Amino acid sequence: MKHLPLAVPHMNEAEAEEVFGWILDGEASDEEIARFLLAMTERSETADEIAGAARALRARYIPVSGPDNAIDVCGTGGDGHHTLNVSTAVGLVVAACGVPVARHGNRAISSLSGVADTLEVLGLDMAAAGRTAEKTLAEIGICFLFAPNHHPAMVRIQPIRKQLGRRTIFNLMGPLSNPVGVKRQLIGIARPGYVSIYGEAAARLGTERTFIVSGDEGLDELSLAGGNELADVTGNEFAMKRVDAALAGLDHAPLEAIRGGDPAHNAKALAALLDGDHSAYRETVQFNAAAALVVAGRTEDWSEGAAMAAEALDSGGAKTLLARWIEMAK
Questions:
Q1: Average pLDDT value over all residues in the chain
Q2: Is 221 marked as a binding-site residue?
Q3: Most buried residue, 73, 86, 191, 300, by most Cβ within 10 Å?
Q4: pLDDT at 112 over 60
Q5: What's the pTM?
Q6: Which annotated residues bind Mg(2+) 2 (predicted)?
Q7: Residue 161 annotated as part of some ligand binding site
Q8: Residue 288, annotated ligand binder?
Q9: What Cα–Cα distance (Å) separates residue 328 from each residue in 116, 130, 303, 321?
């Protein structure tokens, strides 16, 4: 067994890759891993450490074939705001706009309802969705990559994360380790002051284009409530920007307007959204979908992206896509 460093010193990228290789390969005790993760969280992870840890996870995942233009849209979780499932809805909307979406996610760790929990209530068999991921991505342009199916090394880590019940570096590693190997992503993180660090980590790993975003109130999505930090990552470089709802021609709304609940509550709200309900939830989804469509190269105009998202909802395209997905994943 390996012994993790007691003081958890800052590591360079190669050192982080080695240490997280030990963790993922079961070469450290559960107690040491829990202590190590908490200590890293308390002192904040560096770009080197995030990139190195993500490389360790990437080296151990089970890959999935997908189209070259597939994207992922996800939040790191752990923001404590317990909002409705924004990235879940954004994935459906963007896929209905014709951009393949390889959603990579998990059950709730520190939130009330994760993407898998909500989709199950709506009738998607998550086990079947995992088995048919390549087929649904190829044929209808969407899939759900249930993280434990593609990261066997995470099976042992999951109970430790659940016991800790708070954000750790694993929230940051996951989005950078999509099994399809997507080259374009929209990733929300829960700390606006950390966007530049995470942007640097994504740049170290290389990407065609990725947006790292965080609402000023610590939301791991683009927020309507106020301003948002955005790192625009292209290749091995990134630029910081400030964006708000007006960029996409949308109104501001308080965070409380998208407060969520348990999987049943969130599933009901998502079903209403797909049925054409107009709300702050809809506009939050439009805002984030607009960002995803810019990342995907479908448009450079955020207002046009928001309009495309509205059309996907109003035409019933996103609702029909979910119905087809549920039918195929049986």
A1: 93
A2: yes
A3: 73
A4: no
A5: 0.94
A6: 220-221
A7: yes
A8: no
A9: 17, 11, 33, 11
